[in-house]
């Protein structure tokens, strides 16, 4: 069992102006939440959002934040997240990515051994200018530290290309010294922003998770723009299950990117 958790924008139809402080997460993950910061009245029924032509649910709203559900049916890649906070219409350029976990039985083995992969698709469509370091919303840091104790976002310092994939052990208070979680750094060649991807084995008593020759309850990856320079991010792993179909894996992607400002749109004047 695996758990992973048309309006056109253009000068011809609308004239952008400043967004009066509205900003959004530049990378949104399908089946997750995209956050918009700004001024709201706290009543989610007064707010409407859509990813271009497809409406998106307002999951919650406060005086300063709206939480937008990201449907799994929307188009991946760059598009506009539209926010209506009457009387304003604001557009944010965002990238829609998809986190997937796939598995299949290994050939010539018993059912207990399964091969799989975790993929982050379309995050590479995010423009270079939006790979800037940031923690938005601030709750992303607490969320990441719940998954990877002691986690801190990258500082943006350049790293030598010769280092390749750095692998650091991350201590997990729930594990003994022989079963630490493993965090893997994709090389950061000067770009500051990153995405934390975590693969977790939610049923460690029923199955063991192996990757790169190591066994761990979870694997964490710090992905930068360079991680997508040759295509999508893919990490392959192996699961040894005590019983067929009884284990559960969970994938999580948390962007650590500076928010993108929205453009307030106004209909052209009718003379």
Give the amount of beta strand, in percent.
over 45%
Would you report the number of β strands?
A: 22
Distance between the termini: 61 Å
> What's the overall average pLDDT, rounded?
79
Shape: elongated
Count every helix, treating DSSP H or I runs of 4 or more residues as helices. 1
| Largest sheet properties | 11 strands, mixed
SSE topology string: EEEEEEEEEEEEHEEEEEEEEEE
Helix fraction? under 10%
Enumerate the spans where pLDDT stays under 50 for 5 or more consecutive residues: 1-19, 155-180, 185-191
What is the structural class?
Answer: mainly beta
* Computed CA radius of gyration, to the nearest angstrom: 20 Å
Short description:
Helices cover 3% and strands 45% of the residues. With 271 residues, the protein is mainly beta. Strand 10 (77-85) and strand 11 form a beta hairpin.
Helices and strands in order:
Elements: E1 2-3, E2 15-17, E3 23-24, E4 27-29, E5 33-37, E6 47-51, E7 54-56, E8 58-61, E9 65-69, E10 77-85, E11 88-105, E12 113-121, H1 139-147, E13 166-170, E14 181-185, E15 194-201, E16 207-211, E17 214-216, E18 218-223, E19 233-241, E20 249-256, E21 260-261, E22 263-266
Explain how this protein is built.
The chain is mainly beta. Helices cover 3% and strands 45% of the residues. It has one helix and 22 strands. The strands form three sheets. Strands 2, 4, 6, 7, 10, 11, 12, 16, 17, 19 and 22 form an eleven-stranded mixed sheet that branches. A six-stranded mixed sheet has the order 1-20-15-18-14-13, with helices on one face. The protein has a five-stranded antiparallel sheet with strand order 8-9-5-3-21, with no helix packed on it. A hairpin with a 2-residue loop joins strand 16 (207-211) and strand 17 (214-216). The longest helix is centred in the middle third of the chain and has 9 residues, at 139-147. The chain is elongated and about 60 Å long. The N and C termini lie far apart (61 Å). Mean pLDDT is 79; it is low at 1-19, 155-180 and 185-191.
